[in-house]
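About this split. The held-out portion is used to measure sequence recovery: a designer receives only the structure tokens and must propose an amino acid at every position. Recovery is the fraction of positions where the proposal matches the reference. Here is one held-out target exactly as it appears in the evaluation file.
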């Protein structure tokens, strides 16, 4: 795993968590909707005693547990990443890494924060990636 691949994991995991949160919101909306009654005759050999929305609620709870695990992993990963980034000796390089991989800023936003043009930000980023020393046991997503 390269240093860039390692540092990119937090952004991807953050996107995945946000996607899962949107899915939970949609499921909650579906669980709260009222289904229309069946007016015709219905023959069924086995019948579940649970209301129809119970399955949806169970799925919501399972997805929320998954999200909580992912959030815990993200917190651990970002903590480990902060330590890795703090070990980079140059301040500008360290700040580019923090803004890019911890705060998920765009290159333009990083340039604005550091009062530097895009070329300089790219140069600092490339140098910083060479100076990153991965932990002995990096968290992998």
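Reference sequence for scoring:
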């Amino acid at each position: 795993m390269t240093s860039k691949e390692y540092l990119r994991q937090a952004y991807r995991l953050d996107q995945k968590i946000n996607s899962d949160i949107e899915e939970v919101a949609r499921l909650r909306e579906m669980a709260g909707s009222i289904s229309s009654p069946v007016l015709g005759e219905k023959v069924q050999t086995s019948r579940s005693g649970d209301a129809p929305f119970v399955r949806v609620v169970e799925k919501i709870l399972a997805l929320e547990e998954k999200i909580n695990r992912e959030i815990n992993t993200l917190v651990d990963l970002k903590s480990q990443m902060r330590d890795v980034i703090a070990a980079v000796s140059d301040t500008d390089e360290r700040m580019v890494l923090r803004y890019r991989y911890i705060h998920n800023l765009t290159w333009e936003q990083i340039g604005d924060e550091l009062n530097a043009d895009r070329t300089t930000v790219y140069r600092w980023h490339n140098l910083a990636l060479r100076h990153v020393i991965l932990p002995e046991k990096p968290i992998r997503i």
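Annotator remark: The chain has five helices and no strands.
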